[in-house]
Amino acid sequence: MARANQYNWGGPKKTGAPEPGSFVHEFGDMPRSPAEALEPTRGVEPPQRRQRREIRRRKKGSGGIMKLVNGVLTFVLMAMVAVGLLFLFIKTQFDQPGPLEYTTVISIPPGSGLNAIARTLQREGVIEDSRIFVGSALYFKAQSKLKAGEYEFRKHSSMRQVLDKLVEGKAILHKVTLREGLTSEQIIAILNRHEMLSGEVTTIPAEGSLLPDTYKFSRNMGRQELIERMQAEQRKFVKTLWPKRAKGLPIHSPEEAIILASIVERETGRADERERVAGVFVNRLKRGMKLQSDPTIIYGLVGGKGSLGHPLRRSELRKRTPYNTYQIDGLPPTPIGNPGRAAIEAVLNPADTKDLYFVADGTGGHAFSPTLRGHQRNVAKWRKFERGLRARQAKQRAADLAEAAEAAANDSPTAGDAVNINIPGLSLSNTLPETVDASGQAATLPLLGQAPSAQAQASTAAGTNAPKVPLPVQRPRP
Protein backbone atom coordinates (compact mmCIF):
# COMPACT_ATOMS: atom_id res chain seq x y z
CA MET A 1 0.00 0.00 0.00
CA ALA A 2 2.92 2.23 0.69
CA ARG A 3 4.14 1.67 -2.82
CA ALA A 4 0.82 2.55 -4.23
CA ASN A 5 0.86 5.80 -2.31
CA GLN A 6 4.35 6.49 -3.62
CA TYR A 7 3.00 6.84 -7.20
CA ASN A 8 0.05 8.86 -6.28
CA TRP A 9 0.87 12.19 -8.09
CA GLY A 10 -2.29 13.88 -7.27
CA GLY A 11 -4.19 12.74 -10.29
CA PRO A 12 -7.90 12.86 -10.33
CA LYS A 13 -9.54 10.75 -7.70
CA LYS A 14 -11.58 7.82 -8.85
CA THR A 15 -14.86 7.20 -7.29
CA GLY A 16 -15.04 3.80 -5.70
CA ALA A 17 -12.14 1.51 -4.67
CA PRO A 18 -9.87 0.02 -7.35
CA GLU A 19 -10.30 -3.57 -8.14
CA PRO A 20 -7.90 -5.89 -6.27
CA GLY A 21 -4.97 -6.97 -8.43
CA SER A 22 -5.35 -4.14 -10.92
CA PHE A 23 -2.48 -1.89 -11.89
CA VAL A 24 -4.13 1.01 -10.20
CA HIS A 25 -4.65 -1.03 -7.09
CA GLU A 26 -1.01 -2.03 -7.00
CA PHE A 27 0.70 1.14 -8.15
CA GLY A 28 -1.94 3.89 -7.85
CA ASP A 29 -2.85 6.39 -10.63
CA MET A 30 -0.13 6.72 -13.22
CA PRO A 31 0.70 10.16 -14.76
CA ARG A 32 -0.68 10.78 -18.18
CA SER A 33 2.56 12.31 -19.48
CA PRO A 34 6.21 12.75 -18.40
CA ALA A 35 5.55 16.47 -17.89
CA GLU A 36 2.76 15.63 -15.53
CA ALA A 37 5.04 13.25 -13.65
CA LEU A 38 7.50 16.09 -12.98
CA GLU A 39 4.83 18.48 -11.70
CA PRO A 40 4.32 18.74 -8.00
CA THR A 41 1.36 17.06 -6.58
CA ARG A 42 -1.71 19.31 -6.79
CA GLY A 43 -4.35 19.02 -4.25
CA VAL A 44 -8.04 19.12 -4.81
CA GLU A 45 -9.27 22.67 -5.65
CA PRO A 46 -11.57 24.04 -2.97
CA PRO A 47 -15.24 24.42 -4.02
CA GLN A 48 -15.35 28.16 -3.17
CA ARG A 49 -12.54 28.99 -5.58
CA ARG A 50 -14.17 26.96 -8.25
CA GLN A 51 -17.45 28.86 -7.78
CA ARG A 52 -15.73 32.25 -7.89
CA ARG A 53 -13.96 31.31 -11.09
CA GLU A 54 -17.28 30.23 -12.61
CA ILE A 55 -18.89 33.50 -11.56
CA ARG A 56 -16.03 35.47 -13.14
CA ARG A 57 -16.41 33.49 -16.34
CA ARG A 58 -20.13 34.18 -16.49
CA LYS A 59 -19.62 37.86 -15.76
CA LYS A 60 -17.06 38.03 -18.52
CA GLY A 61 -19.56 36.50 -21.00
CA SER A 62 -22.43 38.76 -19.96
CA GLY A 63 -20.22 41.85 -20.03
CA GLY A 64 -19.91 41.64 -23.83
CA ILE A 65 -23.65 41.60 -24.22
CA MET A 66 -24.03 44.60 -21.92
CA LYS A 67 -21.42 46.51 -23.88
CA LEU A 68 -23.35 45.80 -27.09
CA VAL A 69 -26.63 46.88 -25.53
CA ASN A 70 -25.05 50.04 -24.14
CA GLY A 71 -23.62 50.87 -27.57
CA VAL A 72 -26.98 50.44 -29.26
CA LEU A 73 -28.74 52.59 -26.66
CA THR A 74 -26.12 55.30 -27.01
CA PHE A 75 -26.51 55.31 -30.79
CA VAL A 76 -30.30 55.49 -30.54
CA LEU A 77 -30.09 58.34 -28.04
CA MET A 78 -27.68 60.28 -30.24
CA ALA A 79 -29.93 59.67 -33.27
CA MET A 80 -32.95 60.95 -31.35
CA VAL A 81 -31.07 64.07 -30.35
CA ALA A 82 -29.99 64.63 -33.96
CA VAL A 83 -33.55 64.12 -35.23
CA GLY A 84 -34.87 66.49 -32.58
CA LEU A 85 -32.36 69.16 -33.54
CA LEU A 86 -33.19 68.67 -37.23
CA PHE A 87 -36.91 68.88 -36.49
CA LEU A 88 -36.36 72.09 -34.49
CA PHE A 89 -34.34 73.57 -37.35
CA ILE A 90 -36.96 72.67 -39.95
CA LYS A 91 -39.77 74.01 -37.77
CA THR A 92 -37.90 77.26 -37.29
CA GLN A 93 -37.31 77.59 -41.03
CA PHE A 94 -40.92 76.61 -41.74
CA ASP A 95 -42.40 79.31 -39.50
CA GLN A 96 -39.98 82.18 -39.97
CA PRO A 97 -40.69 84.99 -42.49
CA GLY A 98 -39.81 84.07 -46.06
CA PRO A 99 -37.38 85.80 -48.43
CA LEU A 100 -40.04 87.46 -50.60
CA GLU A 101 -39.36 91.19 -50.71
CA TYR A 102 -42.67 92.21 -52.32
CA THR A 103 -46.13 90.83 -52.92
CA THR A 104 -46.17 88.67 -56.04
CA VAL A 105 -48.50 86.45 -58.03
CA ILE A 106 -47.48 82.88 -58.90
CA SER A 107 -49.36 80.55 -61.22
CA ILE A 108 -49.36 76.84 -60.35
CA PRO A 109 -50.30 74.86 -63.50
CA PRO A 110 -52.78 71.98 -63.19
CA GLY A 111 -51.14 68.60 -62.66
CA SER A 112 -48.03 70.01 -60.94
CA GLY A 113 -46.50 67.65 -58.37
CA LEU A 114 -45.10 68.56 -54.96
CA ASN A 115 -41.49 68.78 -56.15
CA ALA A 116 -42.41 70.90 -59.17
CA ILE A 117 -44.44 73.28 -57.01
CA ALA A 118 -41.58 73.58 -54.50
CA ARG A 119 -39.06 74.33 -57.26
CA THR A 120 -41.36 76.98 -58.73
CA LEU A 121 -41.79 78.66 -55.35
CA GLN A 122 -38.04 78.65 -54.72
CA ARG A 123 -37.27 79.93 -58.23
CA GLU A 124 -39.71 82.80 -57.79
CA GLY A 125 -38.23 83.67 -54.39
CA VAL A 126 -41.29 82.79 -52.33
CA ILE A 127 -39.47 80.17 -50.20
CA GLU A 128 -35.81 79.74 -49.24
CA ASP A 129 -35.34 75.98 -49.50
CA SER A 130 -37.54 73.66 -51.57
CA ARG A 131 -36.33 70.61 -49.62
CA ILE A 132 -37.67 71.97 -46.35
CA PHE A 133 -40.97 72.78 -48.06
CA VAL A 134 -41.23 69.27 -49.50
CA GLY A 135 -40.33 67.67 -46.16
CA SER A 136 -42.90 69.78 -44.33
CA ALA A 137 -45.61 68.95 -46.86
CA LEU A 138 -44.83 65.24 -46.47
CA TYR A 139 -44.85 65.53 -42.66
CA PHE A 140 -48.29 67.15 -42.73
CA LYS A 141 -49.48 64.69 -45.43
CA ALA A 142 -50.42 67.62 -47.68
CA GLN A 143 -48.69 66.48 -50.87
CA SER A 144 -51.95 65.36 -52.46
CA LYS A 145 -53.96 68.37 -51.25
CA LEU A 146 -52.10 71.13 -53.10
CA LYS A 147 -54.36 72.86 -55.62
CA ALA A 148 -53.43 74.48 -58.90
CA GLY A 149 -54.33 78.09 -59.57
CA GLU A 150 -53.11 81.65 -59.51
CA TYR A 151 -51.98 82.70 -56.02
CA GLU A 152 -51.01 85.99 -54.48
CA PHE A 153 -48.24 85.67 -51.87
CA ARG A 154 -47.68 88.55 -49.49
CA LYS A 155 -44.32 90.02 -48.64
CA HIS A 156 -42.26 87.75 -46.33
CA SER A 157 -44.87 84.96 -46.31
CA SER A 158 -43.65 81.98 -44.27
CA MET A 159 -43.58 78.45 -45.67
CA ARG A 160 -46.49 77.60 -43.37
CA GLN A 161 -48.58 80.42 -44.84
CA VAL A 162 -47.63 79.39 -48.38
CA LEU A 163 -48.53 75.74 -47.74
CA ASP A 164 -51.82 76.66 -46.06
CA LYS A 165 -52.81 78.82 -49.02
CA LEU A 166 -52.04 76.05 -51.52
CA VAL A 167 -53.93 73.44 -49.48
CA GLU A 168 -56.97 75.67 -48.96
CA GLY A 169 -56.93 76.67 -52.63
CA LYS A 170 -57.14 80.40 -51.89
CA ALA A 171 -56.33 81.31 -55.47
CA ILE A 172 -56.99 84.66 -57.12
CA LEU A 173 -60.50 84.58 -58.55
CA HIS A 174 -61.51 86.26 -61.79
CA LYS A 175 -65.13 86.76 -62.76
CA VAL A 176 -67.40 86.90 -65.73
CA THR A 177 -70.91 88.39 -65.70
CA LEU A 178 -73.48 86.83 -67.99
CA ARG A 179 -76.65 88.87 -68.35
CA GLU A 180 -80.07 87.28 -68.02
CA GLY A 181 -81.81 86.57 -71.32
CA LEU A 182 -78.67 85.96 -73.39
CA THR A 183 -78.80 83.03 -75.76
CA SER A 184 -76.40 80.12 -75.36
CA GLU A 185 -74.56 81.21 -78.51
CA GLN A 186 -74.06 84.70 -77.06
CA ILE A 187 -72.82 83.28 -73.74
CA ILE A 188 -70.30 81.04 -75.48
CA ALA A 189 -69.02 84.02 -77.47
CA ILE A 190 -68.42 85.92 -74.22
CA LEU A 191 -66.60 82.98 -72.64
CA ASN A 192 -64.44 82.49 -75.72
CA ARG A 193 -63.30 86.11 -75.51
CA HIS A 194 -62.35 85.88 -71.83
CA GLU A 195 -58.56 85.67 -71.58
CA MET A 196 -58.47 84.02 -68.16
CA LEU A 197 -60.33 80.92 -69.35
CA SER A 198 -58.80 78.06 -71.29
CA GLY A 199 -59.97 75.39 -73.68
CA GLU A 200 -62.39 75.54 -76.56
CA VAL A 201 -66.13 74.94 -76.65
CA THR A 202 -67.05 72.97 -79.72
CA THR A 203 -70.76 72.41 -79.00
CA ILE A 204 -73.27 75.13 -78.12
CA PRO A 205 -75.22 74.07 -75.00
CA ALA A 206 -78.95 73.59 -75.28
CA GLU A 207 -80.89 76.85 -75.19
CA GLY A 208 -82.12 77.63 -71.71
CA SER A 209 -79.83 75.13 -69.99
CA LEU A 210 -77.47 77.78 -68.54
CA LEU A 211 -78.10 79.95 -65.49
CA PRO A 212 -76.92 83.54 -66.10
CA ASP A 213 -75.06 85.04 -63.16
CA THR A 214 -71.68 86.43 -62.12
CA TYR A 215 -69.29 83.49 -61.89
CA LYS A 216 -65.90 83.53 -60.20
CA PHE A 217 -63.11 81.22 -61.32
CA SER A 218 -59.36 80.81 -61.10
CA ARG A 219 -56.98 81.48 -63.98
CA ASN A 220 -56.93 78.88 -66.76
CA MET A 221 -60.18 77.27 -65.68
CA GLY A 222 -61.62 75.36 -68.62
CA ARG A 223 -64.50 76.98 -70.47
CA GLN A 224 -66.29 73.66 -70.68
CA GLU A 225 -65.92 73.24 -66.93
CA LEU A 226 -67.54 76.63 -66.34
CA ILE A 227 -70.38 75.73 -68.71
CA GLU A 228 -71.01 72.51 -66.82
CA ARG A 229 -71.06 74.51 -63.60
CA MET A 230 -73.68 76.89 -65.05
CA GLN A 231 -75.81 73.94 -66.15
CA ALA A 232 -75.54 72.29 -62.74
CA GLU A 233 -76.54 75.54 -61.03
CA GLN A 234 -79.60 75.83 -63.26
CA ARG A 235 -80.73 72.25 -62.63
CA LYS A 236 -80.23 72.67 -58.90
CA PHE A 237 -82.21 75.92 -58.81
CA VAL A 238 -85.14 74.58 -60.84
CA LYS A 239 -85.21 71.34 -58.84
CA THR A 240 -85.48 73.35 -55.63
CA LEU A 241 -88.18 75.71 -56.93
CA TRP A 242 -90.36 73.32 -58.94
CA PRO A 243 -92.09 71.65 -55.93
CA LYS A 244 -92.98 75.12 -54.57
CA ARG A 245 -94.78 76.29 -57.73
CA ALA A 246 -98.26 77.75 -57.60
CA LYS A 247 -101.19 75.41 -58.12
CA GLY A 248 -103.16 75.33 -61.33
CA LEU A 249 -100.43 76.52 -63.66
CA PRO A 250 -100.77 75.60 -67.35
CA ILE A 251 -97.14 74.45 -67.20
CA HIS A 252 -96.56 70.72 -66.95
CA SER A 253 -92.79 70.34 -66.68
CA PRO A 254 -89.67 72.25 -65.65
CA GLU A 255 -88.74 72.44 -69.34
CA GLU A 256 -91.97 74.34 -70.12
CA ALA A 257 -91.30 76.64 -67.18
CA ILE A 258 -87.88 77.54 -68.65
CA ILE A 259 -89.46 78.24 -72.06
CA LEU A 260 -92.00 80.66 -70.59
CA ALA A 261 -89.39 82.22 -68.28
CA SER A 262 -87.16 82.95 -71.29
CA ILE A 263 -90.04 84.88 -72.90
CA VAL A 264 -90.76 86.82 -69.71
CA GLU A 265 -87.06 87.63 -69.42
CA ARG A 266 -87.01 89.21 -72.87
CA GLU A 267 -90.31 91.06 -72.47
CA THR A 268 -89.36 93.19 -69.48
CA GLY A 269 -86.21 94.28 -67.73
CA ARG A 270 -87.98 95.64 -64.68
CA ALA A 271 -87.95 93.50 -61.57
CA ASP A 272 -91.29 94.86 -60.36
CA GLU A 273 -93.03 93.75 -63.57
CA ARG A 274 -91.82 90.19 -64.03
CA GLU A 275 -94.53 88.50 -61.98
CA ARG A 276 -97.26 90.56 -63.63
CA VAL A 277 -95.95 89.88 -67.15
CA ALA A 278 -95.77 86.19 -66.24
CA GLY A 279 -99.36 86.43 -64.99
CA VAL A 280 -100.49 87.81 -68.37
CA PHE A 281 -98.94 84.89 -70.27
CA VAL A 282 -100.32 82.35 -67.78
CA ASN A 283 -103.81 83.82 -68.23
CA ARG A 284 -103.46 83.63 -72.01
CA LEU A 285 -102.33 80.00 -71.88
CA LYS A 286 -105.28 79.11 -69.64
CA ARG A 287 -107.72 80.72 -72.09
CA GLY A 288 -106.09 79.20 -75.15
CA MET A 289 -105.02 82.61 -76.50
CA LYS A 290 -101.89 83.04 -78.56
CA LEU A 291 -98.97 84.52 -76.63
CA GLN A 292 -98.17 87.10 -79.37
CA SER A 293 -94.64 87.86 -78.13
CA ASP A 294 -92.24 89.74 -80.41
CA PRO A 295 -89.04 88.21 -78.95
CA THR A 296 -90.20 84.74 -80.02
CA ILE A 297 -90.55 85.96 -83.62
CA ILE A 298 -87.03 87.36 -83.59
CA TYR A 299 -85.60 84.11 -82.24
CA GLY A 300 -87.38 82.20 -84.99
CA LEU A 301 -85.70 84.45 -87.57
CA VAL A 302 -82.13 84.69 -86.26
CA GLY A 303 -81.85 81.89 -83.69
CA GLY A 304 -79.07 82.18 -81.13
CA LYS A 305 -77.75 85.47 -82.54
CA GLY A 306 -80.45 87.13 -80.45
CA SER A 307 -80.97 90.34 -82.44
CA LEU A 308 -82.28 91.27 -85.86
CA GLY A 309 -80.23 94.44 -86.13
CA HIS A 310 -83.38 96.42 -86.90
CA PRO A 311 -86.95 96.72 -85.61
CA LEU A 312 -89.46 94.07 -86.60
CA ARG A 313 -91.04 94.60 -89.99
CA ARG A 314 -94.58 93.64 -90.82
CA SER A 315 -93.34 91.09 -93.34
CA GLU A 316 -91.27 89.43 -90.59
CA LEU A 317 -94.25 89.54 -88.28
CA ARG A 318 -96.24 87.53 -90.82
CA LYS A 319 -93.47 85.05 -91.58
CA ARG A 320 -94.38 81.62 -90.24
CA THR A 321 -91.81 79.86 -88.06
CA PRO A 322 -92.13 77.38 -85.16
CA TYR A 323 -91.41 80.33 -82.85
CA ASN A 324 -93.92 82.85 -84.22
CA THR A 325 -96.34 83.03 -81.30
CA TYR A 326 -98.63 85.26 -83.35
CA GLN A 327 -99.38 82.18 -85.44
CA ILE A 328 -98.75 79.12 -83.27
CA ASP A 329 -100.72 78.08 -80.21
CA GLY A 330 -99.09 77.69 -76.83
CA LEU A 331 -95.38 77.76 -76.14
CA PRO A 332 -92.59 77.68 -78.74
CA PRO A 333 -90.61 74.42 -79.01
CA THR A 334 -87.57 75.62 -77.01
CA PRO A 335 -86.52 78.53 -74.83
CA ILE A 336 -85.48 81.68 -76.68
CA GLY A 337 -82.66 82.46 -74.24
CA ASN A 338 -81.35 81.65 -70.80
CA PRO A 339 -83.60 83.17 -68.12
CA GLY A 340 -82.34 84.27 -64.73
CA ARG A 341 -83.52 83.25 -61.31
CA ALA A 342 -86.09 86.05 -60.98
CA ALA A 343 -87.82 85.21 -64.28
CA ILE A 344 -88.04 81.51 -63.36
CA GLU A 345 -89.47 82.39 -59.96
CA ALA A 346 -91.98 84.74 -61.60
CA VAL A 347 -93.24 82.03 -63.95
CA LEU A 348 -93.63 79.43 -61.20
CA ASN A 349 -95.32 81.94 -58.89
CA PRO A 350 -96.95 84.56 -61.15
CA ALA A 351 -98.99 87.50 -60.00
CA ASP A 352 -102.67 86.81 -59.35
CA THR A 353 -104.04 89.13 -62.01
CA LYS A 354 -106.78 89.27 -64.65
CA ASP A 355 -104.60 91.15 -67.14
CA LEU A 356 -104.45 89.82 -70.69
CA TYR A 357 -102.63 92.69 -72.44
CA PHE A 358 -99.71 95.02 -71.89
CA VAL A 359 -97.92 97.67 -73.92
CA ALA A 360 -95.05 100.08 -73.32
CA ASP A 361 -96.01 103.26 -71.48
CA GLY A 362 -93.04 105.46 -72.38
CA THR A 363 -91.49 105.46 -68.91
CA GLY A 364 -89.55 102.23 -69.18
CA GLY A 365 -92.44 100.11 -67.98
CA HIS A 366 -95.71 98.79 -69.36
CA ALA A 367 -99.39 99.59 -69.12
CA PHE A 368 -101.50 96.48 -68.33
CA SER A 369 -105.14 95.84 -69.08
CA PRO A 370 -107.60 92.94 -68.62
CA THR A 371 -109.75 94.06 -71.58
CA LEU A 372 -109.12 94.79 -75.24
CA ARG A 373 -110.78 98.22 -74.95
CA GLY A 374 -108.46 99.24 -72.15
CA HIS A 375 -105.52 97.92 -74.09
CA GLN A 376 -106.46 100.00 -77.13
CA ARG A 377 -106.51 103.14 -74.98
CA ASN A 378 -103.03 102.28 -73.70
CA VAL A 379 -101.85 101.75 -77.26
CA ALA A 380 -103.20 105.18 -78.24
CA LYS A 381 -101.27 106.77 -75.38
CA TRP A 382 -98.09 105.01 -76.47
CA ARG A 383 -98.48 106.17 -80.07
CA LYS A 384 -99.01 109.73 -78.90
CA PHE A 385 -95.84 109.50 -76.86
CA GLU A 386 -94.06 108.04 -79.88
CA ARG A 387 -95.16 110.93 -82.13
CA GLY A 388 -93.92 113.43 -79.60
CA LEU A 389 -90.62 111.57 -79.39
CA ARG A 390 -90.18 111.73 -83.15
CA ALA A 391 -90.99 115.43 -83.22
CA ARG A 392 -88.38 116.13 -80.57
CA GLN A 393 -85.84 114.09 -82.47
CA ALA A 394 -86.58 115.94 -85.71
CA LYS A 395 -86.19 119.27 -83.91
CA GLN A 396 -82.89 118.13 -82.49
CA ARG A 397 -81.66 117.09 -85.94
CA ALA A 398 -82.56 120.48 -87.35
CA ALA A 399 -80.68 122.20 -84.54
CA ASP A 400 -77.65 120.00 -85.15
CA LEU A 401 -77.79 120.80 -88.86
CA ALA A 402 -77.88 124.54 -88.22
CA GLU A 403 -75.03 124.30 -85.74
CA ALA A 404 -72.91 122.31 -88.16
CA ALA A 405 -73.58 124.79 -90.98
CA GLU A 406 -72.64 127.71 -88.77
CA ALA A 407 -69.45 125.99 -87.67
CA ALA A 408 -68.55 125.31 -91.31
CA ALA A 409 -69.13 128.94 -92.25
CA ASN A 410 -66.93 130.18 -89.41
CA ASP A 411 -64.09 127.96 -90.56
CA SER A 412 -63.88 130.09 -93.80
CA PRO A 413 -62.43 127.44 -96.12
CA THR A 414 -60.24 128.57 -98.96
CA ALA A 415 -61.15 128.06 -102.60
CA GLY A 416 -60.89 124.51 -103.73
CA ASP A 417 -61.13 123.08 -100.21
CA ALA A 418 -63.83 120.48 -99.67
CA VAL A 419 -66.23 121.17 -96.84
CA ASN A 420 -67.13 118.03 -94.92
CA ILE A 421 -70.29 118.63 -92.93
CA ASN A 422 -70.75 115.70 -90.59
CA ILE A 423 -74.12 115.83 -88.88
CA PRO A 424 -74.61 113.00 -86.40
CA GLY A 425 -77.84 111.15 -86.96
CA LEU A 426 -78.50 112.61 -90.39
CA SER A 427 -79.58 109.84 -92.74
CA LEU A 428 -79.55 110.56 -96.49
CA SER A 429 -80.81 107.14 -97.49
CA ASN A 430 -84.43 106.21 -97.93
CA THR A 431 -84.47 104.04 -94.81
CA LEU A 432 -86.03 104.21 -91.41
CA PRO A 433 -85.42 107.55 -89.67
CA GLU A 434 -82.79 107.72 -86.97
CA THR A 435 -82.83 109.35 -83.57
CA VAL A 436 -80.02 111.52 -82.27
CA ASP A 437 -79.24 111.86 -78.60
CA ALA A 438 -77.40 114.58 -76.76
CA SER A 439 -74.04 112.90 -77.30
CA GLY A 440 -74.46 112.72 -81.06
CA GLN A 441 -74.99 108.94 -81.20
CA ALA A 442 -77.49 107.69 -83.75
CA ALA A 443 -80.12 105.13 -82.81
CA THR A 444 -82.73 103.52 -85.04
CA LEU A 445 -86.30 104.39 -84.12
CA PRO A 446 -88.81 101.53 -83.92
CA LEU A 447 -91.56 101.24 -86.49
CA LEU A 448 -94.79 102.96 -85.68
CA GLY A 449 -96.86 100.79 -83.40
CA GLN A 450 -93.91 98.83 -82.04
CA ALA A 451 -92.95 99.47 -78.47
CA PRO A 452 -89.28 99.84 -77.62
CA SER A 453 -87.76 97.92 -74.79
CA ALA A 454 -87.95 98.96 -71.17
CA GLN A 455 -84.30 99.98 -71.38
CA ALA A 456 -84.95 102.18 -74.42
CA GLN A 457 -87.96 103.81 -72.78
CA ALA A 458 -86.03 104.51 -69.61
CA SER A 459 -83.22 106.06 -71.65
CA THR A 460 -85.66 108.25 -73.57
CA ALA A 461 -87.43 109.40 -70.41
CA ALA A 462 -84.10 110.29 -68.81
CA GLY A 463 -82.78 112.09 -71.89
CA THR A 464 -79.91 109.63 -72.38
CA ASN A 465 -78.80 107.48 -75.29
CA ALA A 466 -81.33 105.24 -76.94
CA PRO A 467 -79.89 101.87 -77.99
CA LYS A 468 -79.16 101.35 -81.65
CA VAL A 469 -81.06 98.05 -81.62
CA PRO A 470 -83.82 98.28 -79.01
CA LEU A 471 -84.89 95.00 -77.49
CA PRO A 472 -88.39 94.13 -78.75
CA VAL A 473 -91.24 94.06 -76.30
CA GLN A 474 -94.94 93.39 -76.50
CA ARG A 475 -96.60 94.83 -79.57
CA PRO A 476 -100.13 96.18 -79.36
CA ARG A 477 -102.39 93.17 -79.66
CA PRO A 478 -105.69 93.18 -81.52
Q: How would you describe this structure to a colleague?
A:
With 478 residues, the chain is mainly alpha-helical. Among the domains are: 37 residues, no CATH class; 65 residues, Endolytic murein transglycosylase (Dna Ligase, domain 1), CATH 3.30.1490; 124 residues, no CATH class; 96 residues, no CATH class. Helices cover 46% and strands 8% of the residues. It has 16 helices and ten strands. A hairpin with a 5-residue loop joins strand 9 and strand 10. Helix 5 packs antiparallel against helix 6 and helix 10 packs across helix 11.
List the helices and strands and how they pair.
Elements: H1 2-6, H2 23-27, H3 34-38, H4 47-95, E1 104-108, H5 114-123, H6 130-139, E2 149-153, H7 159-168, E3 173-177, H8 184-193, E4 197-198, E5 214-218, E6 221-222, H9 223-241, H10 254-267, H11 274-287, H12 294-302, H13 314-318, H14 341-348, E7 357-360, E8 366-369, H15 372-411, E9 434-436, E10 442-444, H16 454-462
Parallel strand pairs: 4-6
Antiparallel strand pairs: 1-2, 3-5, 7-8, 9-10
Helix pairs in contact: 5-6, 10-11, 10-14, 11-14
